[in-house]
Amino acid sequence: MDLDAITEYSALHPKPSGLILQYGTAGFRTKAEHLDHVMFRMGLLAVLRSKQTKSTIGVMVTASHNPEEDNGVKLVDPLGEMLAPSWEEHATCLANAEEQDMPRVLMDISVKAAVNLQQDAFIVIGRDTRPTSEKLSQSVIDGVTVLEGQFHDYGLVTTPQLHYMVYCRNTSGQYGEATLEGYYQKLSKAFMELTKQTLCSQDEYRSLKVDCANGIGALKLKEMEHYVSQGLSVQLFNDGTKGKLNHLCGADFVKSHQKPPQGMEMKSNERCCSFDGDADRIVYHYLDVDGHFHLIDGDKIATLISSFLKELLLEIGESLNIGVVQTAYANGSSTRYLEEVMKVPVYCTKTGVKHLHHKAQEFDIGVYFEANGHGTVLFSKAAETKIRQLTKELEDEKRKAAAKMLENVIDLFNQAAGDAISDMLVIEAILTLKDLTIQQWDALYMDLPNRQLKVKVADRQVISTTDAERQVVTPPGLQEAINDLVKKYKLSRAFVRPSGTEDIVRVYAEADSQENADSLARAVSLAVFQLAGGVGETP
Ligand code: 16G
Ligand code: MG
């Protein structure tokens, strides 16, 4: 390592002294103007991680659904996964080292992690459409270059597309070709093959309105449109030509406000969906004939997908196990429906994709979705091999067709990460194949009314939780208070957790009516405020 060169270049990306940031649930995320030094240092760190794993590592510059003024960065591990926990710590240390200490901290990391500095390094870089992203990704490149890493800059891509590139490059092309063309080809081929098996071809099923959150999803859907145009016509809204990124639109807005996005013309019973700012989340929605808004969130997406997969598994008659992974935010009705009606085992993990992803890897087929619309389906290597073998060997026509469909589903899901584009194509294919309208899908079960609130406290870390965030451990007395409040309502449930992305505590409540869910959420917020050091206005 040329420490002099590092010091010299680092001075061009100086750290504002005293600024402390943490590599959180989805990497570093804050106001864009505070991130230049973090980007440079993540370029350095990516090179060390690449040398250590002897693999290509990804660096994505995005702040997902955050406001346009924010930005962020996360590293993508060799199989398209989120960065390993021990390296999250290294990332935090490196980002927070004061200017003069930085080269030493970098050396320490390489010693601790036993990095062979002679090894080659290769980094792939991507960015979203934020006005600050281009310059910040240039700072990542500066970091990579100063440590003599090789790189490829994919420029504007969705977060899942960058995960896909990393996965392809580390599996010598077996998963797909590491280009945008390769991504579009792979997904569209699987989509067209899957849907061509259907007899129904009513046109109205094949058109979909997409709210792109004024983000990267719009650009990439435009590029992809013609690959799938024979099977699906998408109409794009909030494509970034007028509105502000994530402002009053996008998956996060629609889910948290339970309202239609602005800037989208919705007629009654039309199928609509919303992406978030970096296109790794998707939720569906529609207006009914009375003009009421209906949200179809990640839980209902997981239900649709797992019931489809379960039917196909029954058809081919193989004992491959399937499991659904959710978080505490999953609507109680969805969990009940999956367990009691569909007889599928359901597991709960902490919030954050890496936790769900990890759990889902325990099954032959692991379906994971957060209620906010982030998710995918993972097939174990053994399950994939078995299915591909069956499509070749089976003689029974019906069983063979089912195995073929499963094979298309494997190719259609982005198994490296939750992906709005890939999820959208899977959902559209299932709705077409099963001849389901959006209302019929919505009617699978009725969501319990729920409410999410935020509470400001002096230090959100005073709240610690257990049991996949469903129970509070500290501060003392808070869980008891929540228990007492929950007892006052029917079909009720509530939990609180410190946010991993904002300086607040999140409160979730559900109950038999919206009024009760609201009132429970308010009462729990007050308990948090009183017992966990609330600041500002009393909720
Ligand atoms: C991040 C996570 C998302 C999680 C959310 C929770 C990834 C890629 N994204 O966006 O999975 O639901 O944070 O935010 O892991 P919160 O901690 O502020 O509630
Ligand atoms: Mg996102």
Automatic annotation (TrEMBL):
<feature type="binding site">
    <location>
        <position position="278"/>
    </location>
    <ligand>
        <name>Mg(2+)</name>
    </ligand>
</feature>
<dbReference type="GO" id="GO:0005975">
    <property type="term" value="P:carbohydrate metabolic process"/>
</dbReference>
<feature type="binding site">
    <location>
        <begin position="497"/>
        <end position="501"/>
    </location>
    <ligand>
        <name>substrate</name>
    </ligand>
</feature>
<dbReference type="GO" id="GO:0004610">
    <property type="term" value="F:phosphoacetylglucosamine mutase activity"/>
</dbReference>
<feature type="domain" description="Alpha-D-phosphohexomutase alpha/beta/alpha">
    <location>
        <begin position="117"/>
        <end position="167"/>
    </location>
</feature>
<keyword id="KW-0413">Isomerase</keyword>
<dbReference type="Pfam" id="PF02878">
    <property type="entry name" value="PGM_PMM_I"/>
</dbReference>
<keyword id="KW-0175">Coiled coil</keyword>
<comment type="function">
    <text>Catalyzes the conversion of GlcNAc-6-P into GlcNAc-1-P during the synthesis of uridine diphosphate/UDP-GlcNAc, a sugar nucleotide critical to multiple glycosylation pathways including protein N- and O-glycosylation.</text>
</comment>
<dbReference type="InterPro" id="IPR016066">
    <property type="entry name" value="A-D-PHexomutase_CS"/>
</dbReference>
<dbReference type="InterPro" id="IPR036900">
    <property type="entry name" value="A-D-PHexomutase_C_sf"/>
</dbReference>
<protein>
    <recommendedName>
        <fullName>Phosphoacetylglucosamine mutase</fullName>
        <ecNumber>5.4.2.3</ecNumber>
    </recommendedName>
</protein>
<feature type="domain" description="Alpha-D-phosphohexomutase alpha/beta/alpha">
    <location>
        <begin position="51"/>
        <end position="97"/>
    </location>
</feature>
<dbReference type="Pfam" id="PF21405">
    <property type="entry name" value="AMG1_II"/>
</dbReference>
<dbReference type="InterPro" id="IPR016055">
    <property type="entry name" value="A-D-PHexomutase_a/b/a-I/II/III"/>
</dbReference>
<dbReference type="InterPro" id="IPR005844">
    <property type="entry name" value="A-D-PHexomutase_a/b/a-I"/>
</dbReference>
<feature type="binding site">
    <location>
        <begin position="370"/>
        <end position="372"/>
    </location>
    <ligand>
        <name>substrate</name>
    </ligand>
</feature>
<comment type="pathway">
    <text>Nucleotide-sugar biosynthesis; UDP-N-acetyl-alpha-D-glucosamine biosynthesis; N-acetyl-alpha-D-glucosamine 1-phosphate from alpha-D-glucosamine 6-phosphate (route I): step 2/2.</text>
</comment>
<dbReference type="GO" id="GO:0006048">
    <property type="term" value="P:UDP-N-acetylglucosamine biosynthetic process"/>
</dbReference>
<keyword id="KW-0119">Carbohydrate metabolism</keyword>
<comment type="similarity">
    <text>Belongs to the phosphohexose mutase family.</text>
</comment>
<dbReference type="InterPro" id="IPR005843">
    <property type="entry name" value="A-D-PHexomutase_C"/>
</dbReference>
<dbReference type="GO" id="GO:0030097">
    <property type="term" value="P:hemopoiesis"/>
</dbReference>
<feature type="domain" description="Phosphoacetylglucosamine mutase AMG1">
    <location>
        <begin position="297"/>
        <end position="435"/>
    </location>
</feature>
<keyword id="KW-0007">Acetylation</keyword>
<dbReference type="GO" id="GO:0000287">
    <property type="term" value="F:magnesium ion binding"/>
</dbReference>
<feature type="binding site" description="via phosphate group">
    <location>
        <position position="64"/>
    </location>
    <ligand>
        <name>Mg(2+)</name>
    </ligand>
</feature>
<feature type="binding site">
    <location>
        <position position="276"/>
    </location>
    <ligand>
        <name>Mg(2+)</name>
    </ligand>
</feature>
<feature type="coiled-coil region">
    <location>
        <begin position="380"/>
        <end position="407"/>
    </location>
</feature>
<dbReference type="Pfam" id="PF00408">
    <property type="entry name" value="PGM_PMM_IV"/>
</dbReference>
<feature type="domain" description="Phosphoacetylglucosamine mutase AMG1">
    <location>
        <begin position="178"/>
        <end position="283"/>
    </location>
</feature>
<keyword id="KW-0460">Magnesium</keyword>
<dbReference type="InterPro" id="IPR016657">
    <property type="entry name" value="PAGM"/>
</dbReference>
<feature type="binding site">
    <location>
        <position position="506"/>
    </location>
    <ligand>
        <name>substrate</name>
    </ligand>
</feature>
<feature type="domain" description="Alpha-D-phosphohexomutase C-terminal">
    <location>
        <begin position="472"/>
        <end position="524"/>
    </location>
</feature>
<feature type="binding site">
    <location>
        <position position="280"/>
    </location>
    <ligand>
        <name>Mg(2+)</name>
    </ligand>
</feature>
<keyword id="KW-0479">Metal-binding</keyword>
<feature type="active site" description="Phosphoserine intermediate">
    <location>
        <position position="64"/>
    </location>
</feature>
<dbReference type="Pfam" id="PF21404">
    <property type="entry name" value="AMG1_III"/>
</dbReference>
<dbReference type="InterPro" id="IPR049023">
    <property type="entry name" value="AMG1_II"/>
</dbReference>
<keyword id="KW-0597">Phosphoprotein</keyword>
<dbReference type="InterPro" id="IPR049022">
    <property type="entry name" value="AMG1_III"/>
</dbReference>
